[in-house]
Amino acid sequence: MRRTKEDAELTKQAILKAAVDVFSERGVAKASLEEIARRAEVTRGAVYWHFKNKMEIFDALHDSLHTPFIERIMEGLEAEHPNPVGQLQELCTNIFLDLDRDIQQRKALTLFLLKCDYSGELECRQEEQVKAKAIKMQAFAGYYKRAIKLGHIADDISAEDYTIAMSCFMRGVLHEYLEAPEEFDMQKRAPIIMKIYFGGLRTPSHS
Q1: Which InterPro entries would you find in this protein's record (predicted)?
Q2: What is the average pLDDT across 59-86?
Q3: Is 116 left (phi over 0), alpha (psi -120 to 50) or beta?
Q4: What angle do CA 14, 19, 21 make, to 5 degrees?
Q5: pTM above 0.85, yes or no
Q6: Structural domain tally of the chain?
Q7: Who contacts 94 (Cβ-Cβ below 8 Å, separation ≥6)?
Q8: 157 shares its domain with 64
Q9: Taking burial as the number of CB atoms within 10 A of a residue's CB, which of 74, 124, 145, 150 is the most buried?
Q10: Residues 136 and 165 in one domain
Q11: What pLDDT shows up at residue 123?
Q12: What is each CA distance from 31 to 20, 115, 151, 163, 176, in whole angstroms?
């Protein structure tokens, strides 16, 4: 039974991996389950065993990125770190470094951020992604609330505004990187870029 479950999970991951490639090449609207099955080297029945349709595959791809990301943010938030800004700097740096090492995650993010046309059947999916982003933003704001309380950053700016500014910055870095990852050298640049950004947030006594 255990081997069967492991095989089923391997098949599911192969389908998701193939779907990223097919969606990226053909577009979600033009892609078919048959194409995904061929790319994954599984039967169409195997695809239907795990997913009802391609929109369910699309949702699973998004969940595979969003859920671990939120868990990672919350894990750090629950740690009660004495230096929340430094903790957040380290977290964001590691997120980019890990992304650079994980080609599958990088392909999926490129699909969602650069290649998807969120019209037609994908319009409601964008609404779901906005909701997921709101959860992420709320979690990040927790770090800034703690930093404000400790006097590590200026208190005349709200935690929400700090979070929005960071989100805009991070998204800009992400777009620059995803457009030409081979030219960006994320392993070298991520620590430097994050140091510049987060260093500018701290009050003089905590810089």
Answers
A1: DNA-bd_HTH_TetR-type_CS, Homeodomain-like_sf, HTH-type_TetR-like_transc_reg, HTH_TetR, Tet_transcr_reg_TetR-rel_C_sf, Tscrpt_reg_MAATS_C
A2: 90
A3: beta
A4: 105
A5: yes
A6: 2
A7: none
A8: yes
A9: 145
A10: yes
A11: 83
A12: 10, 13, 52, 36, 27
